[in-house]
Amino acid sequence: MEKDLQDRLRAAHSDILGEVHGRPAVDWNERKGNERSAFPAIVLTTVSPGREYVQGGTDALKQPRIRAEIFDLTPLSVKAMKRAVIEELESTARQGATQFSRSRLAFERDTDPEDLPGGLKVFRTILDFFVPHSPA
């Protein structure tokens, strides 16, 4: 699911995302670049696994809580990227071997700006989603 979610966000937002190593800047667990061309960027992390259990074991539908941290160079561009991510994840989609149902936004928070070497100032918004998915 992780690779399919990353690929889904890369495909949906490739026209507005920054690039790192020649690909859209959506990564798991760390932001891969601090240069101007790497923004906006999205960093994904798993907050909770979202496994459901039924009498026979685990349910095929999983609903992990996934954090999407959005980074960009102005507060308004972070808000625009935030709206685009919410719109994408609140819709259904099939990506690779995963069928995604509508995600539910569970948490949102803006953070203080971060000063990077070279005089860049980076703004960040944190979004947590419950991301229901099952094998396609």
Verbal overview:
- The chain is α+β, with helices and mostly antiparallel strands.
- The protein is elongated and about 55 Å long.
- The protein contains two helices and 13 strands; from the N terminus they run αβββββββαββββββ.
- The mean pLDDT is 94.
- Strands 3, 4, 7, 10, 11 and 12 form a six-stranded mixed beta sheet that branches.
What are the salient characteristics of this protein?
six-stranded mixed sheet; 2 helices; elongated
Q: Topology of this structure?
A:
Blueprint (H helix, E strand, L loop, with lengths): L1 H12 L5 E2 L2 E2 L1 E3 L12 E8 L4 E2 L2 E2 L6 E8 L2 H15 L3 E3 L2 E3 L3 E7 L3 E2 L5 E10 L2 E3 L1
Q: Please give the share of residues in helix.
A: 10-25%
Q: Outline, from the CA principal axes?
A: elongated
Fraction of residues in β-strands = 35-45%
Average pLDDT, to the nearest integer?
A: 94
Outline of this structure?
The chain has 136 residues and is α+β, with helices and mostly antiparallel strands. The protein contains 2 helices and 13 strands, in the order H-E-E-E-E-E-E-E-H-E-E-E-E-E-E.
